[in-house]
């Protein structure tokens, strides 16, 4: 008869180890979830432009945002080729920017009033600058702190100053709404989730599945919401600055045509579907025309 080294009993340690490890995993996940919740609730503030609660790290102030924007701007200009600042296109773009920037305060105050908020005038410390960059891209950008650029490829697609103003207003709106700061806070939450997965013993495949679910369920809709917000604020800016907001719809139709109509499915994209975007802009048009009537001095003459 074979001698049983355990005296006929199963080793208790082997039965407990999986349960103990499982408990540790849940404790780790709960600890990280608690930290994420604390970060979320302690860094929420109300955006005056939208009236919505947004996540912005309270330790990030205007000067830090400006410094980050300037750093990125200088890096871009070191790699891209701005056109002659005295060229006709550069002067025209700077003039459009000047008109839009001049209406930031009144548009912020009007939108804040709609949402029962007080304007913060966060952008009053911006050091605005705009360049035109030689490129086939039909694009533009505005970084935190007011550093802007328009790519020459946008001009033939836009076709007129009103459409250029709509695009530039959209990009300025991203900076006014502090979308860059919101994305930084969002990335911190994502990093907390990644650290939680790694520390809790999830294998790489499990972590990838969780992050994919988070992307489709939270990150991409969050990015699309930013685009929709920038469309609205930018349209109001263009209208208040005496540009024709009705040019927004044919502009985005041309932008869709220029891309070959090959937009990804909306739920997989950081941007709204072109059709959705156009519907939203059409719904905003009465409000935009009202802003033009209220704030465009030329329209009131």
Structure description:
- The chain is mainly alpha-helical.
- The protein has one domain.
- It is built from ten helices and five strands, in the order αββαααβββαααααα.
- The protein has helices spanning 12-42, 62-79, 88-101, 104-114, 154-158, 161-176, 179-199, 204-240, 248-258, 274-295; strands at residues 44-46, 53-55, 129-133, 140-143, 147-151.
Q: Biggest β-sheet: count, sense, barrel?
A: 3 strands, mixed
Strand order of the largest sheet: 3-5-4
Residue share in helix: 55-70%
Class by helix and strand content?
mainly alpha
Q: How many beta strands in the DSSP annotation?
A: 5
Instruction: Name the beta content range.
Output: 5-15%
* Overall pLDDT score: 80
